[in-house]
């Protein structure tokens, strides 16, 4: 029963208000892409024990999609931000780096 | 015998008697008794039989940790199995019955299992019930079902009501013993909003039983003062009979309040589930005494030493007259002293420690109690009741030094902090060697959203067992919690607790240490699941090293008590067998709830009509009044058919189909999803959403479209109408509206967020009525107001206008193959238009039809239905819908996936029609068998039925199905074995059974 702040409406939303959407910052591969790229895009996920970037929708609230940077082991939340971006905000990355030196996630470190 | 004694009994009112029944027999207890203490007062020590061996079992504990004394409580619609007698407060008229026996508690046939105990070791079920396969259904499963399961399932609906309650607090204190009270005082005085919960009816926990003083006064005085101070604080809420059930992510906690269990005549809900958000949580949940593992430690009359003390002090009852105490620590001496003071004869204290104990031992000795050090119980004698023990040396194999007749045994193996709530959300433990116990590791608490701990353990739950340490620890814990919640506490010295100092305990995991096999096979670890020392040792010999695996193999700790008494003894036994250290073996995972909570409390108010709201169309009441038989479709209710007097449902459906084909029918289509998509990029967006081209659709026209998921599977279909240059209206399936709207929003917000598109789900804004059949145009023209001729409104076109004076939008689309109009009106005008059409149509034999008629009409035409022909694994190409997949578009959702090798595999099953050779109707979901069998011995298959109906139009059964190479095998016969024992033969045909050229709809 997490609490995540919706970056659109500012509500500290209980998990019951939210719908999960899996891993964030996926790059879409469409027609013309190779089999491996497309397979990875559809199915391969990080599933880390540690900091993860996730998609959530404020489904029973404003209806907007947002991203959360959350540690799956400690449940610490480093920040939430609108989904209209292809990379995490710099300040969120800085917080994670400070808390977990040497951390990396896909191309981000 | 067990009996009420003249002294003690601080919780009972001897002036008030309460009558109750146990297995139909009437008994008398006192107000303030628990069912357990009242049974003990009536010499009813045997309360149930064990789960596996049906051994006689009695009370072991006095609280939530009790493994044996589970009873069925109440009768009829208020019957509930597996209720602990120890936590059931007695009330007048209480009715309880024992469990796990047949035909009676005294004479039980299943007890024969006990004679074969050596053939029923750990893993017996896994090893025995494997082969042959055919035995599962006829032999093994009935046997296991008969012998498995605790108690009986209620047969009636629960007559009680339940509720949920949401609460927000700064500091939640779980446990109302002296630690919890002191913690609540500390946090409350600091100004924090405090919620204090205690699972029992009484404040103070077990400290008033254990004795000692606080600030020079008896413990009870401190408890009284603390409660009255807390009650006077406006920022503090106290709840007794309210258990902290679980701790979850980010400070979420559940409380389980039993409001009327102690007096069922009271009005109001029976249980209340507290759904709490706390900034900080203090777990002051105390500690639980551990049993000792010796042979016969499950015979009724063998109890935890602290529990025996509880029964004497709290309820004035004793389990026996001549008691033997076995211990490895000083605390059990308190029981011996209490029993002695209550006039119960204490025959021996068998102290496993060679050097014995501290000051408490001296007190006992001065009272004249005989104390034997370095001694152990070799074996308890007796079946349904303790009759004696044989005494042996702890450092031996069990050779009897002496036999002593007695009628009760008090045992103490030391104490384990209740770390459950600390552990629920990830708090870690550390092994305390001095006290031989796991306690919370303050360095590794459960962490919240800020990455910092939000749970603090206090008092005995934190490993502080002595009274002075408890009070100091609780003060420190609550100060820290209040500070973390934003409240600074004034530093006030904690009250001074004083109790007898204690000598160190000596861990004893088996009594005697070298007990021989026959003794180990009678030394119980887990009473409720009948797991013995020998079972855990066997698991270790068979290679089970992980405590989690051993738990599942032996079922240790898997019963309803979740191993409150057995966990530590079990893993110590495992560690010993593996020659490993206890902390290396570790504990199993503690999961909420702390004790079982009622299903009613979990459901709360969500039952019956309010379980789930029903969606109704504007014409719902009319359907109801006209014989509608309802079909749930998503949250909607749609008429399945309209039965007339004397008609069967089947008759009604057949009539509706014939009438629609021959004259005219009307359908409430309001439940279809209607999603408006608007904006400069709407066309481009819909080209991505649908497999076909929507951007080229002209205003005023309609197009049937397919939607796929990104991995290619067909997820929805429907007709799209272009309203104007930048506006489209997308119809979805009834069940798909919310899902498809969310699907569109997901892609708009997270992938193409720079595209200028808005979506709106207008499903409930419009009522929609389909008028279908050869007379459809005539009916609507009679109604008047619009030119609906073929020239003015062609197939797959729409127009705005008015019919019978009502503003409408008319779509000329068909899901039946008939001349058909779907008419949308604002929802508030739906019933008015429906009435007018029914009125005018009467002259043309118009009849309403339901969803089953709709299905038959579409199946006769070979139209697919999402959820019938699709199941999440089907792509449009499987259904012969290539014509609806654009070849011009560079991209759409699912396009890339449909190029994957598995999707283009020519062996994918494809849609065909199926015609039975004898005109019968194929069973739904039946498989077409192929030659040979698969590795599981089942027939190979080559296809399956997806839709099947009796067609009144054609006078025979028709079906659609997915068949291997189906479209290339026209005319071939397939066999479909049914679950009715018959085998159906059907010919592969074209899926369009009726009016292949579409002449009827294009008039
Ligand atoms: Zn929001």
What would the keywords be for this entry?
heterodimer; A: 109 residues; alpha+beta; Folate-binding fold; 4-stranded antiparallel β-sheet; two-stranded antiparallel ribbon; 2 helices; 17% helix; B: 1003 residues; Ubiquitin-like (UB roll); FAD/NAD(P)-binding domain; 7-stranded mixed β-sheet; 6-stranded mixed β-sheet; 25 helices; binds zinc ion
**Poorly predicted residue ranges of chain A:** none
Count the strands of chain A?
6
Q: Please tell me the overall pLDDT of chain B.
A: 94
Overall CATH class of chain A = Alpha Beta
Mean residue pLDDT of chain A: 96
| Quaternary structure of the protein | heterodimer
CATH fold category name of chain A: Folate-binding fold
Number of domains of chain A: 1
Globular, elongated, flat, extended or rod-shaped: what is the shape of chain B?
elongated
**Unreliable stretches of chain B, pLDDT < 50, 5 or more residues?**
none
Please give the domain count of chain B: 7
* Rg of chain A, nearest Å: 14 Å
CATH structural class of the largest domain in chain B: Alpha Beta
Largest sheet of chain A, if any?
4 strands, antiparallel
Tally of individual helices of chain B: 25
Main sheet properties of chain B: 7 strands, mixed
Q: Give the radius of gyration of chain B.
A: 37 Å
Largest interface: A-B, 29 and 30 residues
Q: What distance separates the N and C termini of chain B?
A: 96 Å
Give the structural class of chain A. Answer: alpha+beta
Distance between the termini of chain A: 28 Å
């Amino acid at each position: 029963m997490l609490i995540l702040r919706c970056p659109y409406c500012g509500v500290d939303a209980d998990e019951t208000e939210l719908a999960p959407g899996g891993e964030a910052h996926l790059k879409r591969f469409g027609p013309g892409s190779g089999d491996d790229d497309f397979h990875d895009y559809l199915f391969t996920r990080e599933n880390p024990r540690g900091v993860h970037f996730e998609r959530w929708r404020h489904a029973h609230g404003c209806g907007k999609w947002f991203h959360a940077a959350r540690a799956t082991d400690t449940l610490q939340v480093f920040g939430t931000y609108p989904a209209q971006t292809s990379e995490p905000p710099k300040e969120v990355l800085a917080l994670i780096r400070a808390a977990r030196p040497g951390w990396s996630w896909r191309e981000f470190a | 015998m067990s009996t009420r004694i003249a002294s003690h009994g601080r919780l009972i009112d001897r002036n008030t008697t309460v009558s109750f029944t146990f297995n139909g027999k009437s008994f008398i207890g006192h107000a303030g008794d628990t069912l357990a203490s009242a049974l003990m007062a009536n010499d009813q020590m045997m309360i149930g039989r064990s789960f596996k061996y049906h051994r006689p079992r009695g009370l072991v504990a006095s609280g939530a940790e009790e493994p044996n004394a589970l009873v069925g409580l109440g009768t009829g619609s208020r019957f509930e199995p597996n209720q602990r007698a120890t936590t059931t407060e007695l009330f007048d008229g209480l009715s309880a019955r024992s469990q796990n026996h047949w035909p009676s508690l005294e004479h039980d046939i299943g007890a024969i299992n006990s004679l074969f105990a050596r053939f029923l070791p750990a893993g017996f079920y896994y090893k025995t019930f494997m082969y042959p396969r055919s035995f599962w259904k006829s032999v093994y499963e009935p046997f296991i079902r008969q012998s498995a399961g605790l108690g009986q399932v209620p047969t009636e609906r629960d007559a009680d009501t339940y509720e949920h309650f949401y609460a927000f607090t700064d500091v939640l204190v779980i446990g109302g013993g002296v630690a919890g009270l002191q913690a609540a005082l500390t946090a409350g005085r600091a100004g924090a909003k405090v919620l204090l919960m205690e699972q029992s009816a009484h404040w103070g926990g077990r400290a008033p039983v254990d004795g000692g003083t606080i600030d020079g006064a008896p413990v009870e005085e401190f408890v009284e003062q603390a409660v009255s101070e807390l009650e006077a604080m406006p920022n503090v809420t106290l709840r007794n009979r309210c258990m902290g059930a679980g701790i979850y992510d980010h400070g979420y906690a559940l409380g389980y309040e039993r409001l009327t269990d102690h007096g069922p005549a009271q009005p109001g809900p029976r249980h209340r589930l507290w759904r709490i958000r706390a900034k900080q949580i203090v777990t002051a949940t105390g500690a639980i005494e551990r049993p000792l593992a010796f042979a016969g430690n499950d015979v009724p009359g063998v109890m935890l030493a602290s529990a025996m003390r509880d029964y004497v002090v709290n309820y004035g009852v004793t389990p026996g007259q001549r008691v033997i105490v076995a211990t490895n620590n000083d605390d059990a001496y308190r029981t011996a002293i209490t029993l002695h003071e209550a006039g119960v004869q204490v025959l021996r204290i068998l102290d496993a420690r060679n050097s014995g104990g501290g000051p408490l031992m001296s007190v006992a000795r001065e009272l004249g109690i005989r104390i034997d050090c370095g001694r152990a119980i070799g074996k308890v004698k007796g079946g349904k009741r303790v009759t004696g023990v044989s005494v042996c040396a702890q450092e031996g194999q069990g050779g009897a030094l002496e036999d002593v007749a007695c009628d009760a045994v008090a045992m103490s193996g030391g104490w384990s902090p209740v770390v459950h709530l600390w552990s629920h959300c990830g708090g870690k433990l550390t092994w305390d060697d001095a006290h031989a116990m796991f306690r919370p590791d303050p360095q590794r608490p459960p962490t919240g959203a800020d990455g910092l701990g939000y749970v603090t353990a206090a008092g005995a739950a934190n490993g502080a067992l002595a009274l002075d340490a408890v009070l100091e620890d609780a003060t420190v814990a609550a100060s820290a919690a209040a500070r973390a919640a934003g409240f600074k506490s004034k530093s006030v010295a904690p009250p001074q607790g004083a109790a007898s100092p204690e000598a160190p305990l000596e861990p004893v995991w088996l009594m005697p240490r070298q007990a021989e096999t026959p003794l180990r096979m009678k030394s119980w670890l887990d009473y409720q699941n009948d797991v013995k020392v020998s079972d855990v040792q066997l698991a270790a010999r068979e290679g089970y090293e992980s405590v989690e695996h051993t738990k599942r193999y032996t079922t240790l700790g898997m019963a309803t008590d979740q191993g409150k008494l057995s966990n530590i003894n079990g893993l110590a036994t495992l560690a010993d067998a593996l020659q490993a250290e206890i902390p290396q073996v570790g504990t199993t995972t503690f999961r909420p709830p702390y004790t079982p909570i009622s299903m009613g409390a979990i459901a709360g108010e969500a039952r019956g009509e309010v379980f789930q709201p029903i969606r109704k169309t504007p014409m719902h009441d009319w359907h109801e009044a006209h014989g509608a038989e309802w079909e749930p479709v998503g949250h909607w209710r749609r008429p399945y058919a309209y039965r007339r007097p004397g008609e069967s449902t089947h008759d009604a459906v057949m009539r509706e189909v014939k009438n629609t084909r021959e004259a005219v029918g009307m359908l409430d289509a309001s439940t279809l999803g209607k999603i408006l998509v608007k904006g400069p990029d709407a066309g481009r967006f819909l080209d991505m959403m649908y497999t076909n081209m929507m951007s080229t659709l002209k205003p005023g026209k309609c197009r049937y479209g397919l939607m796929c998921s990104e991995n290619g599977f067909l997820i929805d279909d429907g007709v799209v109408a272009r309203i104007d240059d930048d506006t489209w209206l997308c119809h979805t399936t009834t069940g798909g509206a919310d899902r498809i709207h969310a699907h569109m929003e997901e892609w708009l917000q997270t992938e193409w967020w720079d595209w200028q598109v808005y979506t709106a789900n207008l499903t409930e804004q419009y009522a929609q009525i389909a008028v279908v059949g050869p007379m459809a145009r005539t009916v609507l023209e009679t109604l008047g107001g619009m030119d609906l001729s073929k020239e003015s409104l062609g197939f797959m076109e729409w127009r705005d206008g008015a019919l019978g004076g009502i503003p409408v939008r008319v779509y000329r689309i068909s899901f039946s193959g008939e001349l058909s109009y779907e008419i949308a009106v604002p929802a508030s005008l739906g019933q008015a238009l429906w009435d007018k059409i029914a009125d005018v149509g009467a002259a043309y034999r118009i009849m309403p039809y339901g969803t089953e008629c709709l299905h038959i009409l579409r199946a006769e035409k070979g139209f697919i239905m999402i959820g019938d022909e699709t199941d999440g694994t089907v792509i449009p190409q499987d259904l012969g819908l290539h014509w609806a997949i654009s070849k011009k578009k560079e991209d759409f959702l699912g396009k890339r996936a449909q190029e994957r090798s598995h999707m283009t595999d020519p062996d994918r099953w494809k849609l065909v029609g199926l015609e039975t050779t004898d005109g019968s109707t194929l069973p739904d979901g039946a498989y077409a068998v192929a030659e040979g069998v698969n590795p599981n011995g089942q027939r190979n298959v080559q296809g399956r039925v997806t839709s099947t109906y009796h067609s009144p139009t054609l006078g025979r059964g028709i079906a659609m199905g997915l068949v291997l190479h189906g479209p290339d095998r026209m005319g071939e016969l397939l066999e479909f074995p049914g679950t009715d024992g018959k085998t159906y033969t059907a010919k592969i045909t074209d899926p369009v059974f009726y009016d292949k050229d579409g002449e009827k709809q294009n008039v």
